[in-house]
Amino acid sequence: MSLYPWFQQIWQQWCQTLAHNSVSPATLLVVKEGMGEATFIEAAARSLLCVHGSELCGYCHGCQLMDSQSHPDFHWVKPEQEGKSITVDMVRQINQIAQESSQFGGYRVIVIQPAHLMNESAANALLKTLEEPPSHCCFILVTDCIDRVLPTILSRCRQLHVSEPAHTVVAEWLARETGQDIAPYMVKLNDYAPIRALHFIQSQEHKNYLRLVELFCHFLHSPLQSIHALVDEIQMSPLVRLTWLWYLLTDAQKFHFQTQDEIVLPKSEEVAQYLSYSMLYQQYRELITLRHRLEVHRGLNSELLVFDWLSKFKGAPCLSTPTAI
Questions:
Q1: What is the homologous superfamily of the domain 5-161 according to CATH?
Q2: Band of the pLDDT at 34, cuts 50, 70, 90?
Q3: Which of 10, 62, 134, 191 fits a 20 to 30 Å CA distance from 183?
């Protein structure tokens, strides 16, 4: 199987570990979400389960079972729902699997992703296994928030950090993959994560972004006439749209200090010209709080909360009491 270019260096490190028969019982893969990390994780698992090791032959029984996603010695643990924790019961189950014998007399591979979403009880339960690791059992923990992983877990893991590719490298790769010129803001808006940016382009999300910022600018000029259209647009995907607006407000603030990044989002200068820095900063902070509330409490009325946030721009009292929602 082929790996993305930005994983080649870390793959060589992994292969050297295999060649020296020094695979750690627990490896922590630190990688930004949206880099295509699943391909590396699968390749690492296959290298332990394939009879030919890192050659990944593709035709042995282990490889065939991996192809059919039915290998009995490979387990991938994720939260039951997006945003939820990995519970202690889930960890206890994999701890039991770790103590059992391999079905094929080789490795058992257990992936925990994202590792930082293990609650405290779950992390402590895993720690007990990592302190006395079973023979021929390899845990691969994956995170993009290493500061949220317990230090005691970190101390038991060999860490592999995936370096982010330069934005020019990402743009060139995206151009080859899509066969089109890539506007730099498309890369920035996806936190320079190549696979996330690819999905953004392929699903035509850049058109949604441009429509959103156009509506936002109309709203700043004519709040009463435009607020409902803007709220409706944000409601198409609240967390995604609000994240885009967070990037926009971030860039707009930088214009006030003349510290713009090399890549500037469309309409950010127009927003900076229309809003004072104090208003931008206030609404930027309010937006961070709003996004966090919607992420943590999925049952909240996002439409009403978004309307309330928008009503605070310029402190317009006529926008402070929504009546049509």
A1: P-loop containing nucleotide triphosphate hydrolases (3.40.50.300)
A2: very high
A3: 10
pTM as predicted? 0.86
Angle, CA of 265, 267 and 270, to the nearest 5°: 130
Q: What is the mean pLDDT of the chain?
A: 93
Nearest C-alpha neighbor of 97 from the set 109, 84, 83: 109
Nearest one of 103, 80, 93 to 126, comparing CA atoms: 93
For residues 197 and 203, give the distance between their C-alpha atoms in angstroms, rounded to a whole number: 10
Measured between alpha carbons, how far is 214 from 70 in angstroms, rounded to an integer? 48
Q: Which residues contact 1 (CB under 8 A, 6 or more apart)?
A: 39, 42, 43, 46, 56, 58
Strand 158-161 to strand 137-143: parallel, antiparallel, or no bridges (unpaired)? Answer: unpaired
User: Which contiguous run of DSSP H or E holds residue 77?
Assistant: strand 74-77
**What does the domain layout of the chain look like in residue ranges?**
5-161, 167-202, 205-319
Closest to 309 (Cα-Cα) out of 170, 216, 181, 186: 216
Q: Taking the domain 205-319, which CATH number applies?
A: 1.20.272.10
**Is residue 232 within a helix (H) or strand (E), and if so which, with residue range?**
helix 223-234
d(CA 283, CA 78): 34
3-state secondary structure (DSSP) of residue 185: helix
Report d(CA 252, CA 271) in Å as an integer.
Answer: 6
